[in-house]
Amino acid sequence: MEFNRRQVLKLAGLGLTATATPGLLAACSNGKPAAGDGSVKFEGWDYEATLVQQNLDKFTQASNIKVNYTPITSAQYVQKVVAEFTGGGGPDALYVYDDSLAAWVEGEYLQPIDGLPGVDEVYSSIFPGNAEAMTYQGKRYGLPYYTDSNCLIYNAEILSKAGFSKPPASLEELESQAAKIKSMGLLEHPIGLPAQLSDTWWAWVWGLVFASGGDLFDNQQAPIMNTTDTVTKDVLTWLQNAANKSKVLDPASLQLLPVPVDNAMKANRYAFTIGARYALRDYNDASKSKAAGKMKMALVPSLDGKVHGTISNTRMYGLAKDTEVKDDAFKLLTYLGGLDANKQPNTAKFWFQERGLGFAYKAMAKDADVLASLKKFADPAIYAHLAEIARPRNVLGVAWYTEFETEMHKVVQGVLSNQVQPSAAVASLAQSAETLKKKYS
Amino acid sequence: MSVLTERRPLGDTAKAWALNAPAITVITLLVAYPIGYSFYVSLQRNNLKRPKAKRFIGLDNYKALFSDDAFLSALKVSAVFVVVVLGLTVVLALILALVLNERFRGRGLLLSLALLPWAMPGVVNGLMWRTIFDAKTGALNGLMLQLGLIDSYQAWLTSSTGAFLFTALAQVWNTLPFSVIILLAGLSTIPSELYDAATVDRAGAFRRFTQVTVPWLLHPLLIVLILETMNAFRAFDTIYVLTGGGPGDATTTIALLDVQTVLTFTDFGLGSAYAWVITAITLIISVGYIGLLYRKGNFEV
């Protein structure tokens, strides 16, 4: 059979069409692609992806359940997961920020895990704040990945040079210690905070408010920072003074994301910051930090120096609503965030020992291995006390939380740069919350 | 016996459609459909956090913009940003194009250097300028300190004015080469006889510039104005990396607000409305430019 040029072109065109069409249709379809091999599709942000994979390999070896793990860049994690679930190709099990929980439940991405094996036991073994953060409208949605709370991190050597033997308990004391360090010429700006606008939450603002027993919202998520609760306004006033009058707070903070603040702390360029407890592990690691051995943690200073509290966050493992491999996916969740056959939180312990990630399990605070590890970078008593007094943001359960957090960053920046007065700032925050409530009603 | 049928050749119009059909199909699928769909989405209450609340609301998203403080503030910031970026770009591009239009030693090297920023993606541009403006280790601080212009390192991006101007500067640096190329192309088409004649008529350098160069450059200038206005209105990556929109709202442009609304707040309805407003504004401005400049240009480029 002979083909002329026209016939060859026709056949080639048909062949190309036949090849491209299923691909195009698949790309346009809204259906969830079937894994086919029964594996569990698991996604998380890309923190220590190699270690995660190693841990998952152990799970597969022990259970014979295949896991198809995809790490996603942290900066795009929420957006990509939302896009996947919207397009119908979401994972079976995944990491969930407590910040995203309400929205993802409302978006029908997640299913509750109440009644599944071992869940009650896990929830009775963890700190109440973590249990609260993983519960939405009375239903439980996650098993704990890690948790942390905020503390004051200080450079004991710089404080010692300035004649201080203990860290500040009140904000007034913090300012006066920093002023002394400044006046002695030890540091131009002893306090550094990450205050550049970004998509992540500003734990230090919440931490400062919670430290003094205040809150921005009541339990019905109504804003109180402008009415019954004056702590936010007082904290903002302190921040404004520290940045613009005593100038102990670095004005460059407005240009700093968390990593540059970490680097500055590790280079002895700041005496104080407010950050997560697990940061101390890096700060006191001689291979990474010039300040190793000098960095200590303390309770977040409060307005009166007597009341103390702090903020906690919880990262969890969640179960997708539409998973077709629910049993296997939940077994994976249990392996990662639950208790093993010996009633031990194996993976939580693994993460603490490998990377110092905070744990939600109360019993781990007394575990000998954990304590030995903890003593290398922090005071176990303060570490445990912070876990006890930490509480989550009570506004996480509203769909407009992300918008409010973003607005709060701008307002706090205005206070730090002396463009907005604290009274106007709290009024603006309250107004924003009311507007958002109305918009989402 | 085989029957030979004579094929009638396709007409020119049919051929044109046939040849363009693949491109039209691709453009329809990849460009026209998403654009049309985004308009449809802009007529909906469509927030991925609340799929149950999704519904058609007509022009409500657009009506809400008039009382949306964040939008009005971003619109104002964008307008000033466009004016500053456009003004600096046109003036600097014109100067650079006039210089590069002359014959001198090292012109090729200067031309290559002038075009270099254009090859840089916006995010990389933002990262580079963030390093330069860094309050602790920035090259700008180092240079100014060595020149004795400042006593200590400054946090350049922490004041509203500083952040705005430095962000605009970073944007200009990134987009300037494109304008230079367009204007340079326009300059190269001006017949040298016109300058000779003007010189014979005893016209000085300034008059030669205003009477010969500028009229010939009106059309290239029109292209520069339209495209750079669109670029400045859509500016996102450099600003996002450099300031994130801060301090406060100082550098929150409408494009930044749009990306935040869609990707961070997952409000696709409102975000699409923002996008369509940006499109409408740039369209109106472009039509204004054309009305103002097109008829005044006497020469085709």
From TrEMBL, chain A:
Stretch forming the signal peptide: 1-26
Main localization category: other
Biological source species: Kribbella antibiotica
Assigned GO CC terms: cell envelope
Compartments in which it is found: Cell envelope
Keywords: Signal, Transport
Similarity comment: family membership: Belongs to the bacterial solute-binding protein 1 family.
Pfam families linked to this entry: SBP_bac_1
The keyword Signal is annotated on this UniProt entry: yes
PANTHER family: ARABINOSE-BINDING PROTEIN-RELATED, SN-GLYCEROL-3-PHOSPHATE-BINDING PERIPLASMIC PROTEIN UGPB
Domain of life: Bacteria
Name the UniProt record assigns to this protein: Extracellular solute-binding protein
From TrEMBL, chain B:
A GO biological-process term: transmembrane transport
Keyword Membrane: yes
Subcellular location: Cell membrane
Listed InterPro entries: MetI-like, MetI-like_sf
Domain of life: Bacteria
Membrane topology field: Multi-pass membrane protein
Broad class of where this protein is predominantly found: membrane
Keyword Membrane attached: yes
Record key words, sorted: Cell membrane, Membrane, Transmembrane, Transmembrane helix, Transport
Annotated ABC transmembrane type-1 domain residues: 75-289
Record CDD domains: TM_PBP2
Transmembrane regions: 20-43, 79-100, 106-127, 163-188, 209-227, 273-294
One Pfam family from the record: BPD_transp_1
PROSITE patterns registered for this protein in UniProt: ABC_TM1
A cellular-component GO term for this protein: plasma membrane
Protein family (similarity comment): Belongs to the binding-protein-dependent transport system permease family.
Name listed for the protein in its UniProt record: Sugar ABC transporter permease
